[in-house]
Amino acid sequence: MNHIQIGQTHIQLLQGDITVQQVDAIVNAANSSLLGGGGVDGAIHRAGGSAILEECQQIRNRQGGCATGDAVITTAGRLPAKHVIHTVGPVWNGGSNNERQLLADCYVHSLQLADEHQLISIAFPNISTGIYDFPKKEAAIIALQTVKEYIEQHPDTLLQQIIFVCYDADNLTLYEQQIQAMN
Ligand code: ADP
User: Fold this and answer.
1) Ligand 1 — pocket residues by CB below 6 A?
2) Which end of the chain has the lower number of beta carbons within 10 A, N or C?
3) Residue nearest (by alpha carbon) to ligand 1 atom 3
4) DSSP 113
């Protein structure tokens, strides 16, 4: 199972590279400096070019970066997407440092930004499950549950398509199992 519909919004799973997605916004698992890093962050800046970093730097000058759980929006430079929403996931540190809530905040704040900009489609990576070491199964449950609740609580959302782009097969399997349990 790789699809679920809530109201007018389709939630889809796929395995691949988020930088090639043709959506209104792709979400970046950034770090709080907004200056780029490894993993999906590095891939987005490499493929999107310097325009993204320039806008991140302007945001840094204005507000000093991005706190964990928050999100900011920039151009997508050369990417096929129109925008990049940069959100900062929590570093997993055993689970007693509010990591679960902060991960949920990333999804909510990204969706809020998408709605503020009247976006119709958005693609998420598996935030925090790489370098930040969040347990993948729990991250998948939080991601899907949080997005589902957001859509249910915002019946007027313009978002029609929400894609979870799983990079590794482990994450795809975990998301498939979770979406099956939700249907
Ligand atoms: P974090 O620091 O939030 O853990 P990472 O970029 O290290 O961020 O990892 C987040 C997730 O993004 C991981 O599941 C990783 O496999 C995945 N990832 C890495 N490169 C890409 C890519 N090009 N497209 C989609 N997902 C990616």
Assistant:
1) 17-19, 29, 39-41, 43, 89, 125-132, 165, 167-168, 171
2) C
3) 128
4) H
